[in-house]
Amino acid sequence: MFLEKINLLNFKNYEMLDLDFSSSVNCIVGDNGSGKTNLLDAIHYLSMSKGAFGGGNTQHVLHKEDFFMVKGVFQAKDLDYEVTCGYKKGQAKVFKVNQKQYDKISDHIGRFPVVLIAPNDTDTITEGSELRRKFFDSIISQLDKNYLINLIQYTHHLKQRNSLLKQFAERNFVDRSLIDTYNHKLIALGKAVCDKRQEFITEFAPIFREHYQELTENKEITELVYQSQFLEEHYADDFRQALPDDLRLQRTTRGIHKDDYDFLIDDHLLRKFGSQGQQKSYVIALKLAHFDIIKNYTFMKPILLLDDIFDKLDDKRMDKLMRKVAAHAFGQIFITDARPERTQAVFEHIDVEKRIFTIDKGEVVDVMEDLN
Fold it and tell me: What's the chain's average pLDDT?
């Protein structure tokens, strides 16, 4: 699978853009702030129906404009699929494939998968549990539609229950039969999500460990451990018995929205005791495992987006990654770099077709193709 072309209109700093891509390696070079990462974000938008770096739809609209459009053509299993996303301020986002609009945009997730490696990925390790949940939820949602549906419904009912808790606090009155309705929904959905997360991490962890050992030459023992209150024997009773705390704090204090994943290295938490080098290796191994498991499930190689990695990875880790590129372990790749000469040097001895796009202030000012 690969992205043949992309068209942008009023997307971030791009007023208008029309590009054809190589099915192998695409290098996007230019000064910082020129729009390199924004182009990767547009590709991510076409795949995942949202941007990769947070922010609502309005933040993806070009300054002083009121709409954007992103259109691309994917080739998957020898068929072309035109994907179009349009958004106008104050209106709902519209997503179409081959001119047919989705009833639910969530149905698009997983059809044209991408994997992004970006400079802020170590935040998944060092910051709060929400980022770790989002990382794994994004992968599982691409593989299991029922999981995504359960997660969306759980989040919806959780918001409603939290709203009720605030109302009860304001009125000094508790409708226990009403709250129990939401208890039942959240317990059932939460258990389904928990079971899938546990099943997934059991499958994902060995693939991750293999990549980490390859990157570090077997120097440390690593482990991924899924933590959830719903893994406990009396999870349903504990959820209901937490109501006094929920009322006092005006939010639901137990549930799968509190889950976390422990990233361990030699039996120690990586975020507390790991070096920067270990954290970088861990993140790359997580992303490569992400790539592999998507490929294993879909029988397609996801598009690989590498944002500014030459500046963030040392020579050793970069060499390991480029060896995989040279061995054609990946499919289509997009790489951004602020130093064109470095990109040329890195790929000089790698026998792959590549196309180099030079970007300046939201415009492509040069395209160079090397067919090798």
Answer: 92
Region 201-221: mean pLDDT is: 90
- The CATH number of residue 14's host domain is 3.40.50.300
21's CB contacts (< 8 A; 6+ apart) are 2, 3, 4, 5, 6, 332, 334, 355
- Which amino acid, residue 303? I
**For 348, what's the count of Cα atoms within 13 Å in the CB-facing half-sphere?**
7
Q: Which residues contact 312 (CB under 8 A, 6 or more apart)?
A: 119, 280
- The whole-model pTM stands at 0.90
| Same domain (yes/no): 175, 210 | yes
State which residues form the domain around 363: 1-113+300-372
Q: 193 and 152 in one domain?
A: yes
32 is in an annotated binding site: yes
| pLDDT tens, residue by residue, 343-365 | 888 887 788 888 999 999 899 98
49 is in an annotated binding site: no
Does residue 100 form part of some domain?
yes
331 has binding-site annotation: no
